[in-house]
Write a structure and sequence with these properties.
Blueprint lengths: L7 H9 L7 H10 L19 H17 L4 E6 L3 E3 L27 E10 L4 E7 L5 H19 L5 E6 L10 H15 L2 E6 L9 H13 L8 H9 L8 E7 L11 H4 L4 E3 L7 E4 L3
Parallel strand pairs: 1-5, 4-7, 5-6
Antiparallel strand pairs: 1-3, 2-3, 3-4, 6-9, 8-9
Helix pairs in contact: 1-2, 4-5
Length: about 290
């Protein structure tokens, strides 16, 4: 019984081998009397939280208040879940007369491509921008999207700003340990635009507190719920029409540039960075200035 699913029928069969005659229905009744019932797995076992988690949240809150008080831009960034483009089932419900028929299997070979939504959310303006990638979610993809956003929106919305606060998760394309992420920020953002960047990463396991998750991505998911994402135009249009009663507006752009995975940054290149790692949490909080 150890390596098989315990059904009342199997338990009754096992008891019969011990000369105990009992029906599956009686087994069920006795199990309930003993406090047993059918249960699912519960995602509640924590892998532990860093002791410095609350300290980092305090740093993030302090910086957000400081930048807001000075009227400086503070953005929240992340990559939304990748989506296959094609006639695939999309979770959720939508009003219609008849359900739309979609593929019975979600094989990658059936898709027209993949959509990688990289989001930038500006809480001060309550505006979101999503860059829809078509190749790989790499550090340079993340950095290029930040540069695109600053060139298209940020530098016009905050014309006098020379400082930018970036709130990011600790992993993914904008990982706190990714060399290409830091080198790309220096090379393609700080040096090109003369910006000073303050970067704060959320500790592991706390990404749901990143504002972009509950202020932008969740609203996009609700807007396209139950709709097959059958083309890039469909994805872009549903992102662009995402609105909330609080005034959220969203822009979306297709990025069909191919990005290479596994780009290596040498020790010599890292030494050229104009970066200051702040104590007491230098891994999650650092400032980068133009060279």
């Amino acid at each position: 019984m150890l390596w098989t699913r315990r059904t009342t029928e199997k338990i009754a069969e096992a008891l019969a081998q011990l000369d105990i005659s009992v029906s599956p229905r009686t087994v069920a009744r006795l199990l309930k009397q003993l406090g047993y019932s059918l249960k699912t797995n519960r995602k509640n076992a924590s892998n532990g939280t860093p002791e410095t988690r609350d300290q980092q949240f305090g740093i993030i809150e302090e910086l957000r208040c400081q930048f807001a008080h000075e009227g400086l831009p503070a953005i929240s960034i992340d990559t939304k879940k990748k989506e296959l483009i094609g006639n695939f089932k999309n979770s959720g419900q939508t009003w219609c007369r008849e359900p739309r028929l979609v593929n019975d299997h979600d094989f990658r070979s059936y898709s027209k491509g993949i959509a990688i939504p990289y989001g930038i959310y500006d809480p001060l303006a309550n505006k979101g921008t999503v860059y829809l990638g078509t190749s790989y979610d790499t550090p340079y993809f993340a950095v290029d999207n930040l540069a695109r956003w600053w060139r298209q929106e940020g530098m016009h919305r905050y014309s006098n700003a020379k400082r930018l606060l970036i709130l990011a998760d600790g992993g993914g394309s904008n990982s706190s340990t990714a060399r290409a992420w830091k080198y790309g920020l220096q090379e393609r953002l700080c040096d090109v635009f003369g910006l000073s960047l303050s970067v704060c990463h959320y500790p592991p396991g706390t990404s749901k507190w990143n504002p972009i998750e509950h202020r932008l991505f969740s609203e996009i998911s609700k807007n396209w719920a139950g709709v097959p994402l059958d083309s890039y135009d469909t994805v872009l249009n549903y992102i662009r029409t995402t609105r909330t009663q609080n005034g959220l507006s969203v822009a979306a752009h297709l990025v069909d540039k191919a990005y290479e995975k596994g780009v290596k940054i040498s020790d010599a290149q890292m030494k050229t960075l104009n970066i200051t790692k702040h104590q007491p949490l230098p891994k999650w909080h650092y400032t980068m200035k133009p060279r």
